[in-house]
Amino acid sequence: MAAKPLLDSPEAKAAEKDEVKGYFETTGFERWNRIYSESNEVNKVQRNIRIGHQKTVDNVLAWLQEQGNLAERSFCDAGCGVGSLAIPLAQLGAGSIAASDLSEAMVTEARRRADEAGISREQLQFSASDLESLDGRYDTVICLDVFIHYPQAPAEEMVRHLAGMAEQHLIVSFAPYTPLLALLKGIGQLFPGPSKTTRAYTLREAGIVAAAAEAGFRPARRSLNQAPFYFSRLLAFERG
Ligand SMILES: C[S@@+](CC[C@H](N)C(=O)[O-])C[C@H]1O[C@@H](n2cnc3c(N)ncnc32)[C@H](O)[C@@H]1O
Predict the structure, then answer these.
(1) What are the φ and ψ backbone dihedral angles of 168, each rounded to 5 degrees?
(2) Which CATH number covers residue 190?
(3) Is position 117 within any domain?
(4) Is the CB of 97 within 6 Å of ligand 1?
(5) 102 C-alpha to center of ligand 1: Å?
(6) Does the predicted TM-score (pTM) go above 0.90?
């Protein structure tokens, strides 16, 4: 029998996740905490990523408000970072939000920001967890800009996993594969690129949509949020 390619082996996947975690506990935390803030200590590229990412967050918040009934709904923000989505969602009156991230540093900062904003720990609960360990059932599951760390097949598997936790809505964003982006990536200019120390993956939208369909979800809303160094496809799915 042919040996598995090294990158697909469970050991390689675990090593890559350890690398991502290590990055987001240290230099990655410092970098992304600055990007996801109002700090002036950002360079042009980082400021640009901040602007693009804010468009994604604003889109999600607008769609959720259009759907209505926020106060009666439960949310899961998977890979929440420093709470850029969860905190304003709580401020808009979401019923309950379970927000989690692989990085304890990110979660600690998110909790600090939520406390500072006066949000109750009952309404918004943070925990440190990787996506794979998440379970429970929520009206809406959201996962923004995390799939940059997932190759196509594991990302599709993760879409099915997150869809299995969602009663009504699933919202995901990811860096879409396009020939132009493949070229840019090739010359080392990738947008919401976490850093040169972790690998960044672009994903084929058709595969993500097919994975959601397998789990009983159909696409309902779609947008592309971009700034010169940020390029993120946002998809909202509904059950049915
Ligand atoms: C670019 S940030 C996006 C954060 C947040 N979703 C947002 O949009 O503000 C990516 C986040 O994904 C987290 N992450 C990466 N791999 C993860 C995994 N396997 N499970 C959970 N979180 C993960 C990182 O720690 C980081 O906080």
Answers:
(1) -125, -45
(2) 3.40.50.150
(3) yes
(4) no
(5) 7
(6) yes
Indicate whether 182 belongs to any domain: yes
pLDDT, tens digit, 9 for 90 and up, residues 125-145:
999 999 999 999 999 999 999
Per the structure, the complete domain to which residue 170 belongs is given by 14-239
- pLDDT for the residue 3: 46
Q: Which amino acid is at 180?
A: L
Asked if residues 120 and 91 have their Cβ atoms less than 8 Å apart, the reply is no
How far apart are alpha carbons 197 and 23 in whole angstroms?
8
Q: Helices 44-67 and 27-35 meet at what angle, rounded to 10?
A: 70
125 Cα to the center of ligand 1, angstroms? 16
Ligand 1 midpoint to CA 2 (Å): 34
- C-alpha of 236 from chain center: 13
Whether residue 94 lies inside any domain: the answer is: yes
157-215 pLDDT tens trace: 999 999 999 999 999 999 999 877 666 665 555 545 555 557 889 999 999 999 999 99
